[in-house]
Amino acid sequence: MAATSARTRAAGTTAPAGPATGAGGNICYADTSEALNREHAIFDADRCAAVNPSDTAPALIALDAQMVIRSSSGERVVPAEDYFIGPGIDITRMTVLRRGELLVAIRIPGTFAGARFYFEKIADRNVWDFPLVNVASAMVLAGGTIQAVRIAANGVAARPRRLVAVENIIRGRARSEETAVAGGAAAIEGAVPLHHNGYKVPLLRNLVKRAIRGGEDS
Known about the structure:
This protein is α+β, with helices and mostly antiparallel strands. The strands form two sheets. It has a four-stranded antiparallel beta sheet.
């Protein structure tokens, strides 16, 4: 489960001026015009521009997974969507795990059993690598109409991002190119790219469109 709880990625955690925000400091070295911020966040980068690198996280969120956490004091269950936290909550933690707690199991409910599931990842290399952007979706169709859907993306913010606005727009509509275009546009609303990662905006839009269509041949 280590890949699920992977640390955020940043260009560096220390510099002569002091540690970066992700290491407990007060400076985000990625959010400058000189920074190598090609891989960094396009959403919610006001305090830290590092991104969550997990491929499994958006898939778990799309499937409405439940994270089972255990400690000496007992057990608690947290939805995958709430398991990951951003710097606005705690700059030093990427998940809700507290000291002394372990993630011991992941439960996948039957909510989307038999649904259409889609996952796609874009990385710099065609071998094992962290994602630049990835997207996962679970969709229930009835006669070509989207009855239920969950979509999540990663590599675009400090925590996996559930695309609720996209879900709300495409739910109840036909699975069509028109619906895919509307969903892709909703996915990038509010994006604020840094100096070198503007490519992530159209990349996210197009991945969401493909997820809605079910791939380029759908």
